[in-house]
């Protein structure tokens, strides 16, 4: 080997050693944030801004058919059965109201699904995320239909991650994470009639939306994750974006990484922050009301809380994805 070649190799080696390890730096910053931000967050609330909750059940065993592997969504039927989207193993696991595993379905039709909703006839719509389509089942697991979704105008496949049914208007709202938009699918015409949103940080723009919920009037509350806010979309105003709830931060009424949203029996919004591990409550105008807490008024820390669901008895179901469980709580003082 020539001396010149040897020098070049050594120079290259020195350059490589001096090059900053950005991934390591990012990991350190995230670790510091994980310690500092929650401490700041815990100091941001007064006594009357705590809403105590009590754990009444946990779904997700350590072995067998009840074991969950990164669940991503949960809902209940009229008779109290609990349906858990167990996306990492491509199934819906069904539990009794007391938490006993009953049956599962979907393995032959799903590929890394992330979102799930139920209509008034208790048919279950599942966002089959990796395949870019929607699968429809009965509550007993019979497959009814597959809905294929159009690509974006740039030819990028749709990536459905959540969905919600407006029974009165016969519409299905579909969150397309990859294309930063919401598809509005007409269930009678069986076609997408409108899309709202595009990539960006301004009003009417989205960055990696993840979850949504509808109120009794059909207003859409959409979690815009990277823009760290909840967007509201009104169906009677040509699905225009109306106002935002929350903004980036670690104080009350602010989000670091919002992920899940649900509406309780009083019409209030519950929003989970997967990074800070907290759930906050707002009224539908966006006014902060409370943070969920333990009985002694300490902020309840969840493990990566993602999707949320509130049942007919006003019980809160929290998908703690990386803890591989669904935690069920009673809310109220």
Describe what this molecule looks like in 3D.
11% of the residues lie in helices and 43% in strands. Strands 20-21-22-23-1-26-25-24 form an 8-stranded mixed beta sheet, with no helix packed on it. Strands 2-3-4-5 form a 4-stranded antiparallel beta sheet, with no helix packed on it. 38% of the residues are buried. Mean pLDDT is 90; it is low at 1-17 and 39-43. It is mainly beta.
What's the topology here?
Layout lengths: L2 H16 L3 H21 L7 E10 L13 E4 L5 E5 L4 E5 L5 E5 L9 E4 L5 E5 L4 E5 L5 E6 L11 E7 L4 E6 L4 E6 L4 E6 L12 E6 L5 E5 L4 E6 L5 E6 L1 E2 L5 E2 L2 E6 L5 E5 L4 E5 L5 E6 L11 E6 L4 E6 L4 E7 L2
Parallel strand pairs: 1-23, 18-19
Antiparallel strand pairs: 1-26, 2-3, 3-4, 4-5, 6-7, 7-8, 8-9, 10-11, 11-12, 12-13, 14-15, 15-16, 16-17, 20-21, 21-22, 22-23, 24-25, 25-26
Order of helices and strands: HHEEEEEEEEEEEEEEEEEEEEEEEEEE
Any low-confidence stretches, pLDDT <50, length ≥5? 1-17, 39-43
What strand line-up does the widest sheet have?
20-21-22-23-1-26-25-24
Number of strands: 26
Number of helices: 2
| Helix-strand makeup class | mainly beta
Helix share of residues? 10-25%
Strand content: 35-45%
What separation lies between the terminal Cα atoms?
78 Å
Which outline best applies? globular
Spatial extent as radius of gyration: 22 Å
* Average pLDDT figure: 90
The main β sheet shows up as: 8 strands, mixed
């Amino acid at each position: 080997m020539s001396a010149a070649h040897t020098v070049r190799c050594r120079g290259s080696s020195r350059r490589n050693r001096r090059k900053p390890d950005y991934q390591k730096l990012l990991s350190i910053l995230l670790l510091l944030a994980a310690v500092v931000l929650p401490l700041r967050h815990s100091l941001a609330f007064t006594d009357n801004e705590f809403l105590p909750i009590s754990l009444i059940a946990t779904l997700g065993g350590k072995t067998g058919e009840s074991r969950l592997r990164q669940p991503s969504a949960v809902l209940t039927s009229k008779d109290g059965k609990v349906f858990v989207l167990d996306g990492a193993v491509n199934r819906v696991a069904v539990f009794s109201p007391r938490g006993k595993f009953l049956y599962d379905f979907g393995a032959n039709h799903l590929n890394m699904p992330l979102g799930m909703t139920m209509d008034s006839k208790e048919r279950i719509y599942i966002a089959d995320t990796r395949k870019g389509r929607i699968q429809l089942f009965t509550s007993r697991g019979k497959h009814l239909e597959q809905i294929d979704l159009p690509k974006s105008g740039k030819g990028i496949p749709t990536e459905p991650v959540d969905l919600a049914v407006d029974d009165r208007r016969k519409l299905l709202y579909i969150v397309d994470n990859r294309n930063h938009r919401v598809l509005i699918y007409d269930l009678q015409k069986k076609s997408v009639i409108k899309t709202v949103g595009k990539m960006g940080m301004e009003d009417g723009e989205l960055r990696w939306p993840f979850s949504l919920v509808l109120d009794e009037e059909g207003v859409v509350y959409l979690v815009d994750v990277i823009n760290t806010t909840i967007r509201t979309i009104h169906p009677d105003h040509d699905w225009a974006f109306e106002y935002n709830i929350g903004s980036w931060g670690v104080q009350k009424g602010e989000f670091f990484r919002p992920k899940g949203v649900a509406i309780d029996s009083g019409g209030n919004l519950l929003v989970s922050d997967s990074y800070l591990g907290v759930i906050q409550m707002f009224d539908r105008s966006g006014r902060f009301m409370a943070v969920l807490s333990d009985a002694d008024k300490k902020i309840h820390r969840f493990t990566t809380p993602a999707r949320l669901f509130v049942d007919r008895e006003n019980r809160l179901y929290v998908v703690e994805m990386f803890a591989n469980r669904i935690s069920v709580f009673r809310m109220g003082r």
